[in-house]
Predict the structure.
Amino acid sequence: MQPHSTTVHGLLIEQTESGEIQRSVQQFSEDDLPAGEVTVRVDYSSLNYKDALAARGQRGIVKRLPHIPGIDAAGVVLKSSAPKFAEGDAVIVSGYDLGQGHWGAWSDVIRVPAAWLVPLPSGLSLREAMVLGTAGFTAAQCVHALQQNEVTPAAGEVLVTGATGGVGSLAVQLLVKLGYEVVAVTGKTEEHQRLLELGVTRVLDRAALVDDSERPLLSATWAGGVDTVGGKMLTSLLRQTKFAGCVAACGLVGGAKLEMTIYPFLLRGVRLCGVASADCPMPRRLEIWQRLANDWKIEVPPAWIREVSLWQVGDEVDRMLAGQSFGRVVLKLNR
């Protein structure tokens, strides 16, 4: 697309008169875009679990239809009425209301508030930024939470649940880079070897971690953990965490309820840190992205990345919601 074109292509989610949710790539005018001070040409986006739900028209994620999903964008400023950004600036947009209440990044042009933009840090390409996206940003916040709570590599093994997913796989790679002994948990036995190649110490089947008993405490095993699943996975991990350990929690695909006693917190001093990315304050957001571009930069193996077009992402949505996805899906726009 040329910088001043008024034609936009996006994956539109609509509801038919019969109530059916349908999605299709459609062409519309730049004038149809939501309000904002900055217009961005999107070069790359990504697929996150929240995007997959939005692509199904999930209420609670999507506030109104028709809608364009996509909570992550990396691209170049086309127009700006905000003094902080100028035409040609490379930027990242992730979180806030993008792809939820505000039309998202599965579109080759977006218009957003200037307050949502992060200048692309030196050391990251636009594509690398979207290989990370909200998943990598969330994984980095989880690792930061462990460090802030004094879970060091010397403390012992750190567990990562949902280790083949976007957040989980990136958390694994970042922790390994920083010298931690990482134990990965997955329900996908066919992916065990792939996880070992990332440098994890060992791989556990999720059935080996989940304890359905009502015992308030289990054997103290883990120095800390990154939980991307929630539900029984999280409660089992908390009951197995060592004294003064920390668990960073960022997912709920396995359940939103925390059904357990408070004994791990009172008798072992375990700390549970919730990690939220959408409304992360800008100073911390800038710091995390700088670290991901520099001392925390990871080289994600090509086998863990699938690059698709706007016309192909629907198949990846279906795979993710069926529990068949792994690694990162990157959307390339503006072909």
